[in-house]
Amino acid sequence: MITADVNTAKFDEIEEKVLEIRRVSKKTKGGNTIAFAVLVVVGNNNGRVGVGYGKAPDVATSINKAIGKAKKSMVDVKLNGPTISHEVIAKYESAKVFLKPAPKGTGVIAGGAVRAVLELSGIKDISAKMIGANNKISNVRCTLKALKKLKG
Question: Gene3D superfamilies given for it (predicted)?
């Protein structure tokens, strides 16, 4: 019997968080086609985080699609203990995010979608400020872009 030496621990400890479920519709010749669009963040609370967006006729399928895309798009975040090593600014479309390291015991000071990304990436002490957009998709992608900019 052949056994593959695959590390399944990477996928077992991944947490998923659904940030947004939208009911969307498309105008067609036969009428309106209704679907559900879902935004999901996944992370292992130890320096890996990903974002996925899935769309399907029912909620369960769209969540599964989004989780699959999020797992494929996972990136490594360079942590400095429970925080980040330096300040970082990122811009994605109209969203702008400022991430600033915080002293131990401060916690995650961030709002909404940004908070979910930071918590699932494993950052414990950080201060964040979003400017310019209320759109969760833009805010999440902007935060991910900022985390990619971090240097060890």
Answer: 3.30.160.20, 3.30.230.10
